[in-house]
Every structure is written in C-alpha cells, then in structure tokens.
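The authors assume throughout that readers already know how a fold can be written as discrete tokens. What matters is that the chain and its backbone geometry are given together, residue for residue. A single example would do more here than another paragraph of explanation. For illustration, here is how one protein appears when written out as sequence plus structure tokens.
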Amino acid sequence: MNSKKNIITAAVIAVLSLIAVGVVYFSLMIKSDGQLDNTMFYSMDTYIEARGSNEARKTAREVFDRCDGIFDFHDETSELSKLNAMGKITASEELTDAVSEILTLNGKYGSDADITVGALTRLWDINGDAPRIPSDSDIKKALDTVGYSRIKVKGRDITLSEGTQLDMGCAAKGAALDIIKKKLDSSGDDRTIISAGGSSILLYGDGDFSTGIQSPDDDTKLIGKIITKEGFISTSGGYHRFAEIDGKKYSHILDTKTGAPSETDLTSVTVFCQSGIDSDFLSTLIFTGGTKKIADYLDDSDILVLALDKDKRIYKSPELEFELADQEYSYASEDK
C-alpha cells in the first residue's frame, strides 16, 4: 500500500431517491488529491458506490451480487430463504461465518438486535408493499419464534428451532464488506472506498479518512465528520427506512422485546471498528438499546461510537476523533 498520508472525505450527503416506505439512497462524494475511479450499481436492495482500481470495483460488484443471492430475506431462491423454509441446511462459508459471528456478538452484547426476527419482519412488512399494524396475538406468536438461542451452528450445518426465521438485514451488507476487504488484502490493492447505501462503508488504505455524518433531521446537512484510519463505518437510524401508517411513522428496526418497531430515544448511531459485520450489527443493537444503555458501549475497546438523541445531544467514545459542524448539537457530557 501507498504510505502517503492523504485525507479522503467520504461524505454521504446527496439524496438520490425516496420511495414510498421511506428508503433513501445516497451518493458517496469523495475528495482527495488523487482521483479514484467510480462505479455505482444496485445490489442487496440498495445502491452501492465503489471507488478504487478497476479490479477493486469489479470485486465489489461480484461480492455484493453473490451475497445478494445468499442473504436476501425476500428472495425465495436465496440461501437464507432455503434455510428459513427447511429449518436446517449445510450452508455456504459466507452464511456460516456471518451467523456464527452474530451469535458471538449476541453472546457478548445481548439481544437488542437479533437476526431471528424474520417472523416479525413479515408480520409488520415495514419495507414491503403492505405495511400494517399486527394484532397483539399475532405479535406474541411471532415473538415466540425470536431468540438467538434458537440457532445452532455445527461446522457448516445451521439448524433453526421450529418456526424461527432469520432476517440478516442488520448485518448482510457488513458481511459483504468483510469479504471484499479480505479479497483486497489478497490482491495487494490500494486505496478503496465502498459505500453500501451510505449506511455501511469500507475505508481501505493508508492515511486518514474523514467521513461525514448526516443530520437525522435534514438530508442536506452534516452534523460533523469522523476522522479515522482504515476500517468499517456503519450508521443505523429509523429516519430513512420506515412506514407511515395512520399518520405515525414506524421504523424498520424491530424491538426484540416488544415485537414492535423500535421507539428508542436515539436518532442515529454510528459504529467504527475493524469488522464490517460487527459495525453493521452493533450500530443496530446500540440504536435499539437507547440512551439508557449507551454508556456501556462508549468505553468498549473494540469499537468507536457516535450516537445522537432526540434532544440533539451527542454521545461519543473518548478515543473517537469527531469535528462538530452543526451547533444545534451539543455533547451530553456538557449537560452534567
């Protein structure tokens, strides 16, 4: 890799499309003293923007298209759907590794995010054509199928308890980015940036990266920027994927305790670490847990966290370098 210390700005700020259920797609805007070639394509239910060499961009497309066929919850032909239908399969390396890593994360961090929410996902259909408010009895029935202890992995055999359905939406893009990172390491490729819908990003190469954090209140504004070395950044929030039913907005992120869309007091959680699947999954888990649990994560040595709440307060890991731009926000520690 080139050891020259360049600063690259990956600011996810341009809204391209807004569809009925509230899905927003972003353009990745890169600034550097060297030109990075760009490719944009659609895969895994979002727009992917890849910047880097021809080989790196080709790799990104191949990996995302393969992962789409593995992790797509809504595609009946995907490997995940086959697992959900059969209850037990001998899985691909990609699916086995992803499920195993998530179970490890659940064991360490708890169940505020859980991939066994598939029955609830179908019930609410927040991202589908017919979102609805289910009956209490239907929610209770679906909740009976939720719980990460209902997944068993032995070698490459994955077994689900009866009725349990996996939805990998909170981790699949991060898993794809992990695979791309391994391939870049093997190829000896240089500086590369891959953005999956603006919410999960791989920053690859030497030097510093400056990543803009979008305001949850205004798609055109940044609240500031995070300065990091290479790694993975994921952001979770309920303001981009939601359904509006009878005048109320319902987040696509489901609460595994209530069986309903999350009503956390956080508006956005960004996690930086050295694993794509960890950053993707943990941003969702921390978001769902809300401010009452945020202190548990700010001193975690494996991750760096930036969280925003509904009162425009900022919660930040002490080691995370963050430059605040929106003066409507203030640090929660300043309120003490």
DSSP finds eight helices and 19 strands in the chain. The longest strand covers residues 7-18. Helices lie at 54-71, 79-86, 93-109, 118-124, 136-143, 172-187, 276-289, 291-298.
